[in-house]
Design a protein that fits this description.
It contains twelve helices and 13 strands. It is mainly alpha-helical.
Length: 430
């Protein structure tokens, strides 16, 4: 009886939520097509005021790879809209024509028509490093949408470069959020990229074969093991953000630092990977750690999730002008939705865990609508982030990326909408 009541409550809530998500996805698409997509040259321009007014036509590497992924997936799995495919095609061409230099590395930034503003920074993880990974992700999704063989090769080449980069010791650990930085350190953000891309490459229909399949499968196994044994803190049951070069826990400020947003995001990816593998034990471990991370991250006074814990021992959160970021809230909701979906046709989580997942999903959805949506201020779209109370700012500057003033985020928000629509569709039709 309890199971039937829970299932009915879940179905009713998800039916309503699914309709709301579909409408938000349409609004998101409309915003980008009207204000941030370069219909003439291709690519994405993310320096935009709340009103939609374009501040700069410059194009940053992250947003091109991410935008390519979003619109390729939007076309492939959300209606086969030719307008979405054309956006992906123009972005794909712009990347190939303007973002690769003569050495095959990816430049950091171009102007609107493709002239290089900031050249490749091949030792920087925050610019060319992560940017190359997002190019790999976007190219592979474009290949899945179109069958374009050049996109397939470009994706694998970029991904191989990224893996060698993060496995090596020449990268500059310039992520702004890490307290203590030094060459060779291991970061959870790097493993997040590796688990995300290897899982997507291996999911059905599998897009890799031969030696590439062997390499990616092996890397996938290694990454899951590193996340769940090395980065997982057995006492605190949280994922550490930074380890020493040998993956040991460091004896410095990083030992007590937890970037909770990354931890939450990585753990839902491990949950998704466990479902792909049909590994029930891994799924339960990841779901338990995910719930623990969300519980720790949740602000008991103002609601929402903090992005980081500066000191676990002192229970001190990162509290600044960006302590509440929209993408962190998005990752919470995606993970909660994953907990509601059956594990390959059967329930492996108990009803209390699933009830927590539904309750937390709806609480965070209400929280993001209240604090991040800009409709009440007369503007389209959503905020990127804010302080503890998500105070509205006319001119938003991300403290982690001060050069990206007034930017609008073209990845986490649309990705969360798509993934939650896909998951809720599966639940409602199963």
């Amino acid at each position: 009886l309890l199971c039937r009541r829970f299932n009915m409550a879940t179905l009713e809530a998800l039916t309503s939520l699914n309709a709301k998500l579909q409408n938000e996805q349409l609004q998101c698409d409309n915003f980008w097509q009207q204000y941030g997509i370069d219909a003439e040259n291709g690519g994405f321009m993310c320096s935009i005021k709340h009103s939609g007014e374009l501040i700069s036509g410059n194009k940053f590497i992250w947003y091109q790879g991410r935008g390519l992924w979003v619109y390729s997936r939007l076309y492939r799995l959300h209606g086969k809209n030719q307008a979405h495919l054309e956006i992906a095609k123009r972005t794909y061409k712009f990347i190939l024509d303007h973002f690769r230099n003569n050495e095959g590395n990816y430049v950091v930034q171009t102007d609107r028509v493709g002239n290089v503003i900031t050249p490749a920074e091949v030792h920087s993880i925050s610019t060319t490093g992560y940017g190359t990974a997002f190019i790999a992700e976007g190219m592979m999704e474009y290949f899945r949408a179109t069958g374009d063989k050049q996109a397939y090769k470009t994706s694998l080449d970029a991904f191989k470069w990224f893996q060698e980069f993060v496995d090596g010791d020449e990268r500059i650990p310039d992520e702004a959020h890490i307290p203590h930085k030094y060459k060779g350190m291991r970061c959870l953000g790097h493993q997040m990229i590796l688990i995300s891309l290897t899982r997507q490459f291996l999911e059905q229909p599998c897009t890799v074969e031969g030696d590439d399949l062997e390499w990616i499968s092996s890397l996938n196994d290694r990454t899951v093991d590193i996340i769940m044994t090395k980065f997982f803190h057995p006492e605190l049951e949280l994922l550490s953000e930074a380890l020493a070069e040998d993956y040991s826990r460091p004896n410095d400020a990083n030992a007590d630092f937890f970037y909770l947003g990354h931890g939450i995001e990585v753990l839902w990816m491990v949950m998704a990977e466990a479902k792909r593998r049909k590994d029930e034990s891994l799924y339960k471990r990841a779901a338990k750690a995910f719930r623990r991370s969300v519980t720790v991250a949740t602000d008991p006074i103002y609601g929402g999730a903090f992005r980081g814990l500066s000191s676990a021992q002192q229970h001190s959160f990162l509290i600044d002008q960006d302590c509440k970021l929209k993408w962190v809230q998005d990752e919470v909701m995606v993970g909660c939705m994953l907990m509601l979906e059956n594990f390959n046709g059967k329930d492996v989580l108990d009803e209390e865990d699933k009830a927590w997942g539904l309750r937390t999903l709806l609480e965070y959805k209400a929280y993001t609508e209240k604090h991040f949506e800009l409709k009440k201020y007369g503007f389209p779209y959503v905020l990127v982030g804010g302080d503890r109370q998500v105070t509205f700012r006319e001119n938003y500057v991300n403290c982690g990326q001060p050069v990206a003033g007034n930017r609008k985020e073209n990845y986490h928000h649309p990705r969360a909408l798509m993934l939650m629509i896909e998951l809720s569709n599966q639940i409602l039709t199963s």
